[in-house]
Design goal:
The protein is an alpha+beta fold. The protein has one domain. The chain contains four helices and six strands. It has a six-stranded antiparallel sheet with strand order 1-2-3-4-6-5. Helix 1 runs parallel beside helix 4. The longest helix has 20 residues.
């Protein structure tokens, strides 16, 4: 099942991040992370990967609040964007796309640490 392969690859990108993130869901089709800092007494979303009906969705909230993070992503990855902070994959994710998502996710993590939304213990 191609969706499951994409899900596992994208989950690995999120699960490999450093300290300061809390797993809110870890299910076979849905992996969801919040930051460890509350904003206005609410948990702050960081990212998620979820198997949908015909694709896998990868959500990365820091690119919504810091759109400049998207300035250097490849056109190939931009084509996968749905909305301001979601990437959809219907076919098997390519190595180029996976590498781009990984770099973008790392940069997003670093930006949230810099902005004080993640307390890196």
């Amino acid at each position: 099942m191609e969706e499951q392969k994409n899900f596992e690859k994208l989950k690995q990108v999120l699960s490999s991040l450093g300290n300061g993130l809390e797993i809110k869901k870890d299910e076979p089709d849905y992996y969801y992370l919040n930051t460890n800092k509350k904003v206005k007494e609410k948990d702050m979303f960081f990212g998620a990967v979820q198997i949908r009906k015909s694709y896998v969705a990868f959500h990365l909230y820091p690119v919504y609040t810091n759109p400049e993070l998207l300035d250097n992503i490849s056109d190939n990855l931009k084509k996968r964007m749905q909305g301001k902070s979601c990437f959809n994959f219907k076919r098997e994710i390519t190595e180029e796309q996976l590498s781009g998502i990984d770099m973008l996710t790392q940069a997003s993590y670093e930006k949230f640490v810099e902005n004080g939304y993640i307390e890196n213990k």
